[in-house]
Amino acid sequence: xxxxxxxxxxxxxxxxxxxxxxxxxxxxxxxxxxxxxxxxxxxxxxxxxxxxxxxxxxxxxxxxxxxxxxxxxxxxxxxxxxxxxxxxxxxxxxxxxxxxxxxxxxxxxxxxxxxxxxxxxxxxxxxxxxxxxxxxxxxxxxxxxxxxxxxxxxxxxxxxxxxxxxxxxxxxxxxxxxxxxxxxxxxxxxxxxxxxxxxxxxxxxxxxxxxxxxxxxxxxxxxxxxxxxxxxxxxxxxxxxxxxxxxxxxxxxxxxxxxxxxxxxxxx
Length: 268
Ligand SMILES: NC(=O)c1ccc[n+]([C@@H]2O[C@H](COP(=O)([O-])OP(=O)(O)OC[C@H]3O[C@@H](n4cnc5c(N)ncnc54)[C@H](OP(=O)(O)O)[C@@H]3O)[C@@H](O)[C@H]2O)c1
Known about the structure:
Helix content is 38%, strand content 13%. The chain has a single domain (3-184, 211-223), classed as TIM Barrel. The two termini are 33 Å apart. The protein is an alpha/beta fold. It has an 8-stranded parallel β-sheet with strand order 3-4-5-6-7-8-9-10, covered by helices on one side. It is globular.
């Protein structure tokens, strides 16, 4: 499996899984060979995710575990305590700790400095951000002296994220694609269906392949073991330059699924 800045190309998303279902699905994903698991304080599932990793029997050192600091915990009085709680709930130090959303007041310096402090204290093995615009990424990476490895953003063929991709490459950061299948919408596109038929693969694998072939990691969520196994097989084939371009042209759909009210700073 390819890794981008150490992040396995295909991972496993866990929102909105909770409780025993979250535990079962994570264990199943690891059993079939996925080695990258994405959670967040916001999802309320860090405890079952931690239990699922243990239940899978896969050695902890083989799993790349990501969690994120909730917007309500970005302030000076809550940040460190929230990270300690995440580590306790997961039962382990995460491989990557992200700021889940830029703060709504637009002042990212304080939260980024607090994130860096958690890294220095050994509360995460690497650090990054999520939902940061190119301008915010540049500022954060500047403050971090180039040590941030990732920006996790909505990324799929139906949305043009090329500015973010250019910025990430300039800054030695990688993107991780959330909602990589646009929650199923990508698989409805005829272009994707035609390419899938040519390769004898499901449309979902073509979409994930389009993502990882650009050096972007993807974290699809599924409740089904067979779909998790299929998602992993996106690593096993290649799309031609023409096929990549035909799928990229779908960005004219301009479908942004996640656009919460606190994103007042815009996406620039
Ligand atoms: N950083 C952020 O702000 C942020 C925001 C949103 C999401 N995320 C993360 O990104 C993860 C994934 O995003 P998402 O859940 O929004 O969207 P997604 O992964 O694009 O779509 C999930 C849907 O795709 C289906 N699916 C998955 N694999 C499939 C396959 N091989 N064939 C057919 N259908 C398949 C699943 O159904 P089945 O269960 O039936 O397979 C599920 O309904 C989340 O779980 C979360 O960890 C992060």
